[in-house]
Amino acid sequence: MLAVAVEEARAGLAEGGIPIGAALFGADGELLGRGRNRRVQDGDPSMHAETAAFRAAGRLRGYRHTTMVTTLAPCWYCSGLVRQFGIGQVVIGEARTFEGGQAWLAEHGVGITVLDDPDCVRMMNGFITARPDLWSEDIGE
User: Fold this and answer.
1) What DSSP designation does 18 have?
2) Is the per-residue pLDDT at 78 higher than 80?
3) Which listed residue (7, 30, 50, 99) is catalytic?
4) Is residue 51 very low, low, confident or very high in pLDDT (cuts 50, 70, 90)?
């Protein structure tokens, strides 16, 4: 499942954006929606990867049995989305470069799995080094 999110992150980087990708999966592992951070490409500060994947999935009757897979720990905005709609699980590629709201989500019953994927860490560290201005903007600093 992480491979889908990584593919999205790489596509975003190739477009000149922030390399964060996400995908929403159903309980049976079916891919429901995928997306990438498109804040730069779309000029839209709300187009985070998790938001894009969630929107691409369309309306569902419920989200408790879905899993959001993301290359980077979700920020507070995306953590709010997970809580608002009751997404049951979040799988995180890496949380070394950014911790986000993962602890808060876990405290509120969301299952959290941090994979500490070396490719995700390398991709984010490379981006942060190359574009500290965009990174700071993305995390609200």
Assistant:
1) -
2) yes
3) 50
4) very high
